[in-house]
Amino acid sequence: MTKKIKGALYCFLLSSAALFYTSVVFGQNEKKVKVEKVPKQDRIDVLINDKPFTSFLYPDTLEKPVLYPVHAADGQIVTRGFPINPQPGEPTDHPHHLGIWFNFENVNGLDFWNNSYAIPADKKHLYGWIKTDRIINASGGKTGTILYHANWTDQKNNVLLEEVTKLSFSGTEHHRIIDRVTTLTADTMVKFTDAKDGMYAIRLAHELQIPDKKDKEFKDDKGNVTVVKGGADDVANGNYLTSEGKTGDDAWSTRGRWCKVYGKMGNDSMTVAIIDHPENPNYPTFWHARGYGLFAANPLGEKIFTNGKSAKNLQLKKGESVTFRFRIVIDSDNKTLSVAELNKLADDFAK
């Protein structure tokens, strides 16, 4: 057993303990989790109480592994359908925004974040790929687990980083939780150059967008411009709130131990929260939270978020590692998760 796998298994024990505390916070019985490999497909389905929660998709045809789609306890899907399963009326910008994912815009000059099927072949050499080559464990119970190994590569399959990630899944009557522990180990000298687009992200369903009547343009580090259309939108009704009290579009570029997006989906109030961990680099994280539905925690985007006042570049020598821990909480109930509830969830995750 390699040191990297031993480290991941140790994190497995820690995060399993954290999930026990979570069930106490919610005051409800945890539901049984099934984790099922799909034969001859690079897919693992996760079900809670025999209801679909999410699927782990890891074919090399995708530029990174993702969780997609993601269901709340009431069955509502909180992730955008596009580009795999577009829904009527939803936006079709940023085709690299798919489900829940983890990557970064600038690793040794390679852009892992913006890579997608939409990149022209003659530009692909500027982009990185995350290829899952081994499922170490996939099991169910009170907590579901997927433990996997992946390689962060260039287009010639040269490995920059080896990734070991453990995903934990749990749920109660109204709640769903995903805990992620990712350890990245450098196969060569690696530099994460401070950049806007990263790191742990979800592309939200149309309902959880903030309504906006104006078109907006967003530019990546290569000068590529994406237009997000505004206009009359009677579906979007979302809003952001951070642990520091920032709301709406003002959440973007600010720091906090947690951030939630909330809105009405069907008959329920829906909350999707990302919780940072105090052992993560540059805690508390910056929030790359856009009104059009991109919701991300990016601890390595300090330069743009502070208007150049400071920067956070992370460098690993060959053999060195860094670990990131995040929690996503999805709540469907008659009211949104309160500040007190989210603080308690963050406290328990920190243990």
From TrEMBL:
<protein>
    <recommendedName>
        <fullName>Methane oxygenase PmoA</fullName>
    </recommendedName>
</protein>
<dbReference type="InterPro" id="IPR029475">
    <property type="entry name" value="DUF6807"/>
</dbReference>
<keyword id="KW-0732">Signal</keyword>
<dbReference type="Pfam" id="PF14100">
    <property type="entry name" value="DUF6807"/>
</dbReference>
<feature type="signal peptide">
    <location>
        <begin position="1"/>
        <end position="27"/>
    </location>
</feature>
